[in-house]
Fold this sequence. Notes:
- By secondary structure, the chain is of the alpha+beta class.
- The chain has helices spanning 2-13, 15-26, 30-60, 63-88, 93-115, 119-122, 126-132, 185-190, 211-220, 223-237, 243-262, 272-279, 284-307, 313-336, 341-366, 371-401, 405-425; strands at residues 137-141, 146-148, 156-162, 165-169, 172-177, 182-183, 197-200, 204-210.
- The protein folds into 2 domains: 2-102 and 271-425, no CATH class; 126-262, Sandwich (Jelly Rolls), CATH 2.60.120.10.
- The chain is built from 17 helices and 8 strands.
Amino acid sequence: MPLDALLQGFLGASSLVIGAVLGICWKPDRVVTAAIMAFGSGTLLAAIAFDITQPVFAMTGFWPILIGFVLGGALFTIIINYIDDQGGFIRHPSSSRRFFYHHRQEETSEVLDEIAHVEMLHSLSPSEVQAIIPLLKPLSAEPGTMICQEGMPGDAMFIIVDGEADIYKGPQLMAKLGAGEMFGEMSLLTGEERSASVVARTPMRLYELDKVNFDGMLTRSPHLASGLSRILARRLRETTQSTANAREKEKSDGQWRKEVLDSVEVDFPLSELQIKQLAKSSAPLAILVGTLMDNIPEALVIGFNAGGGHLSGSFLMAVFISNIPEALSSSVGMQQAGTSAKRILALWGGAVLLSGLTAMLGSFLSNFANDWVLGTAQSLAGGAILAMLSSTMMPEAYELGGGTVTYSTIAGFLVGFWVVTLSLVG
């Protein structure tokens, strides 16, 4: 029995290597990848329903299913999130985007802490503020540094984080600027030369938005120019602001900050440059462990079935098919991140070996566990597989193929059900 489990575990996981080779050499069209991924999801759903849930219910009732599925889903989610935090995120496009999303939120939060009191930004929408933040360049200036010179072309605007500056018109001191104030924005909008000079009075920290980035931002958000114009016009009319308005603004800062952070995009394709940047934060060991976590529940179920003397053709087929797109998409991402083809194949080869050993362990345990414990263990594995489907395969399939994945998923489920019925009839 253990030898049968080992061979079945190898067979089910062997498609990982096939998927890796396809990802390295072929790189199929997005729609093809989505169709395979959706079909595999459908077959796994059928396998969970008819090869795990139904037999366990017949053997032990509902409670082991409830306990096992809840624990399996929770454990899988907790462990995978930890592995992703440790650098294993790059094995899946969805986890890579999620990591990049949280990374962008952290960067945005740091900048917002320093510029949240800038009045102009509160008059823009959260998405517009979000568009500005990545373009801001941090600067520092020592006392006496001329940041803007009267009569020179306006090539940037500035936001003061802390420190003070003096505004000169010729030799005459006109005004002082402090933290939270802006200067240089008028020339960006009008294209005119600087109307005054700005000199650092104290050590300063600033953010610079240069004209190239500013113009590019206006291209993506044309109504931003009108928003800035309205703000500048109001600032020309208003020289003071009431205390009541200031207090109201302070109260709204928290809500405004939350809206800006919530506007960070999550459903965006990653460029190759972003993938390479993410790869610097990834860890090969975490990638390997994360890959194994995706396959251990499936291997355990194979082992449990083999230990009970039951060869589940439908479950083996589901595992075999679902592993192909998983390894394919992961291999494409790792190759874009700079991982060599030899290393990628070694990773998936190791996953196949360990999946076989895990299946053997499942077969061994099934010989000693009573029905209730075995049913709970199978349900736990089923819950983990469902968590994997809902967090990776199904979202990625829909993103790649859109609504067409509906038919592939249904086809996969029906084929899985048909294989189960054939085995029952036989």
